Amino acid sequence: IAIRNVLDRPLPHYYPTLRHTMGMWTLDPETPDCDAPGTLELPYLLSQVHHLFTLDAERESDLSLAIRANLMRVLSGAQIDKKALPELTGISKEAASMCVNYLKKYDYLVEEPLLAEKGKAVRLTERGLFEQVRYADILQSVETRWRETLSDATIDNLQKALQDIALDANGMNAPLFQGLGVELPLWRAERPKRVVLPHHPMVLYRGGWPDGS
User: Is residue 209 classed as helix, strand or coil in its secondary structure?
Assistant: First the structure.
């Protein structure tokens, strides 16, 4: 609530929705909800803070935060099997393919035959490697501005609270994973349990699942 009150602007009650045809950039809501922060439940407050951070980061970036946080994070100058991207990133096959197509179009990566076996591989170009390094700089820049605006204590408290939810001592089996079971008769209940979550929601036109499904 402290962050939402200081960084005040009307925001929606959902995570950033991405423009899949325009490089996965976050849509700046035209008709957002305007409830007072003190009346909102925690998931809505977190989604609004996430929106604020994403929009702030993308103002100084040549790539969307979703592409940087998910796909660029796991790539390198060496070949990676294209089929492995959903497992490595936590996003769906369709979302990974959209990211690859965009990065390939603008020379951030190349797609080529796997050297050791049949199939396709992807690897970063020099431009892609440069932007991969910039990711940490952009995050640090936004965090620094927020600390100057909000105070170190506010940001430290938020980080601690989120780490308690998303991580455990070994970085696996975090409390967040306990809420991922699908008990309803939905198609997702038949899918294998996730072992990696997206580092940024990939909510596309396809539906509201945060992995882009």
Answer: coil
**Who wins on pLDDT, 2 or 98?**
98
What is the C-alpha to C-alpha distance for residues 205 and 189, in angstroms, rounded to an integer?
21
Place of tokens 């008769």: 185
Angle at 61 between CA 5 and CA 42, to 5 degrees: 30
How far, rounded to the nearest angstrom, does the alpha carbon of residue 9 sit from its chain's CA centroid?
Answer: 22
Interval 49-104: pLDDT, tens: 888 889 889 998 989 999 999 999 999 999 999 999 999 998 888 889 999 999 99
Task: Specify whether the CB–CB gap between 16 and 27 falls below 8 A.
Answer: yes
Distance CA(89)–CA(70), nearest Å, equals 5
pLDDT of 23 higher than 90: no
> What residues contact residue 178 under an 8 Å CB cut-off, 6+ apart?
none
Tokens of 15: 């995570």
* pTM, two decimal places: 0.81
DSSP for 101-166, written as a single string: HHHHHTTSEEEEE-SSSSSEEEEE-HHHHHHHHHHHHHHHHHHHHHHHHH-HHHHHHHHHHHHHHH
